[in-house]
Specification:
With 107 residues, the chain is an alpha+beta fold. It is built from two helices and five strands. The protein has a five-stranded antiparallel sheet, with helices on one face. It is globular and about 35 Å long. Bound molecules: adenosine monophosphate and zinc ion.
Length: 107
Amino acid sequence: MEKECIFCDIAHGKAPCDLLFENERIVVFKDIKPHCPTHLLIVPKKHIRSVNDLAEEDSGLLAELFYVAKEMAEKVGVDKKGYKLLFNVEKGGGQVIFHLHLHLLAK
Ligand code: AMP
Ligand code: ZN
């Protein structure tokens, strides 16, 4: 767990969020400033700064992030209509929270 990382705090129950799913490795919560009617964040509990910092050993975790995203899309009922999955990578890619997170966006 990284000091002064809001997503580490959320993932470890030390900061509030609108939590939709949790297991040993991942949390899913609603984005605080949604860009779409459905805007969820799929977040590993492990602190990884960005996609650039993924290690080979994170491959399973990365696959699980996508699997959980697909499950959440079904759960909130946007799977049939369709949705976007998005990683912003570093400042130039629009990343503002430097703890890996997958956006699930649906209109
Ligand atoms: P990114 O630009 O990819 O780093 O996205 C960060 C996202 O996290 C933004 O859409 C923010 O609205 C969202 N966000 C920031 N702080 C919180 C928070 N405390 N709870 C939920 N979402 C947050
Ligand atoms: Zn973190």
